Amino acid sequence: MATVKLLKQMKNSVYTFFLSLLMFSCQLNVEPPQAFGPIPTEEQLSWHEMEYFSLVCYGLNSYTEEEWAYGDVNPKLFNPSDLNTDQWAKVASEAGMKGLILVAKHHDGFCLWPSKLTDYSVAATPWKDGKGDVLGDLAKSCEKYGLKLGVYLSPWDRNHAEYGQPEYVDYYYEQLEELLTEYGDIFEFWIDGANGGTGHYGGANENRSIDRIAYYNYDKIFDIVKSHQPNAVIFSDVGPGCRWVGNESGIGGETNWNTIDREGRFPGDSDPNFLKYLQTGKKDAEAWVPAEVNTTLLWPKAWYHHTGHQPRSLANLMDLYYTSVGRGSPLNLGIAIAPSGKIRDVDARNLLKFKEQRDREFRVNLIEKANISVSDTRGNARQFGAKKLKDTDAGTYWASSDQVNEASIEMNFNSPVSFNRLLMQEYIALGQCIHTFKFEVEIDGKYQTITEGTTIGYKRLLRFPNVESKKARLSLKTDAPCLTLAEIGLFNAPLLVDDPVLIKGIDGTVFFRSVENVTTYFALGEKVDREEFKAYVHPLKLADGATIHYFAKENDGNYASEVITEHIGIARDKWKAVSGSESQKAIDGDNRSFALSKSGDIVIDMGKEINVSGFSYLPRQDGQKEGIIFDFEFYLSDNGRDWGKATHTGTFNNIENNPISRHIKLKEPTKARFIKLLAKSDVRRSGLASFADIQIFQRNN
What we know:
The structure is a single chain. By secondary structure, this protein is an alpha+beta fold. The protein folds into 4 domains: about 40-360, Alpha-Beta Barrel (TIM Barrel); about 365-375 and about 385-490, Jelly Rolls, CATH 2.60.120; about 500-570; about 575-700, Jelly Rolls (Sandwich), CATH 2.60.120.260. It is about 20% helix and about 30% strand. It is built from 10 helices and 37 strands. The strands form 10 sheets. Strands 1-2-3-4-7-8-11-14 form an 8-stranded parallel beta barrel. Strands 15, 17, 18, 19, 20 and 22 form a 6-stranded antiparallel sheet that branches. Strands 30, 32, 33, 34, 35 and 37 form a 6-stranded antiparallel sheet that branches. A hairpin with a 2-residue loop joins strand 18 and strand 19 (about 445-455).
């Protein structure tokens, strides 16, 4: 009997083994879904995965502070004191960018490489005695820091004498050959639709119009690019590799199809309806031409350096991330290189803060703890099962059976979890299929809609107020034969803690803007310890001036911003500009206004005797250079008549390229009621002196 029982057990085991083997074999034989509609090329897929890169803007425009220069600027103006492409690449890499696209030639025609075809290039500048190559340096820096390199070559050239004639087009083709054959692999070639208009044109100084459709022969341009750089994605208003999103605001369409119809469209097409079309794309269109979202780091928006423009706030940058990458399009965030040849410290700092906040928001994917079930699985096969949705591999995916056009994905947790972000990714290698999604959570035993929308595409990120639940459900719809989804994620993003905003009154009152669930802490004094900081409650009266240190901290956690230090001058509400009413603009607390003195000086009555230990000077902030003081003398007086010898003489070094407030400390504090700042020279030798802001510091401040 024991032998018979053993034989039966062996028979059952063999049967079970072969049945399992048969089922496994059947699963392996389940056919993957067929591609639906246009699909991305390998280079487009790689481009999608980059997600974040920058158009780097630098050239003569950086010195003239123009966005579109005329083409007549003397190239000798290009003379950076500290050009460092390693710094550009290092900052970009640490900020999480994957590539840099250099504006190698903008509309002014000035070339950032020593082109053999023109003398309007870095070869004609004092920089490195005419032997420099910005593009060549950047190519090496990108390789050093693991970034991809792209180039922009404007077809419009306001410097070239033959622009508008066939000879110029040949010149453009030859320049393109230089760029594409001498600097290694190019991941993206950028071309836009700004073409024709007024320009220098070799001295003609006239308006020239072209046939925007036929003049350049765009197809030939694209053929040249592909012949030398087959892996490059070509950007223009209408592709063919990727398209403009129709605005420079950093906003992609909430409905964002990666496909458009290109027939009859061309770069520079200004039809307002077409611009809306570029933002949304078109379902069931003929070609895969995904949108690239672009805008600038600087605000007010500027591609090139402009005095007084500051980097966007952290909150604004995060908004841009969710309206670009969060809507399925890469973010191309333009960086303006300062005239010195480097990314400004304040810009680099904000880029790194932006990276830190993204990391904070997406550090822990709560979906890893969830049990996921789906309403349908293709062939009940594991390779298309629910577990693929949380394996952190965008190359695998869940798929439904053919003819299943609606499906739901349920996420169940063992205990309630709190979250406020949703991530979804389609498997776009097979095309873009999903046209409707709805996300719900169970609250008090009933599902409630938290967010819903149309397209998903490469990636969709959605923000919503915190919800807590043990159950969530995602419902999807498509017109394609079946559904696919590569990844899903739930995150509990922490509070965004930006730098405090300090506001100063000319009467010495200082206050910070209130932010919900965030407290600002401050301390006064030259050197302070952490325990000296106290919570800001009400405006501070600092009529005698002070050195203030401050930071922000979330109320319900430990995260805090960096400590910022700022020097506050004495109150100026009783001051009077003796040198004329125009000079009052230098002490009105508004950095946008400024006094412009033909005599080269400013005299101020402080109303009482002050033990002066230093002063600060801010030049005009409108982008013009005339009157920016270079060499100066600073005087003090008891009566405003007897000045004697200058208390301090000096130079505001590199102020033309970096026109920020300069703080000068005197060797010895001196008592006086009147001050005079005299310009001995300005950066343009115009004989003028500009004064946007003057502050005075007392002893120990």
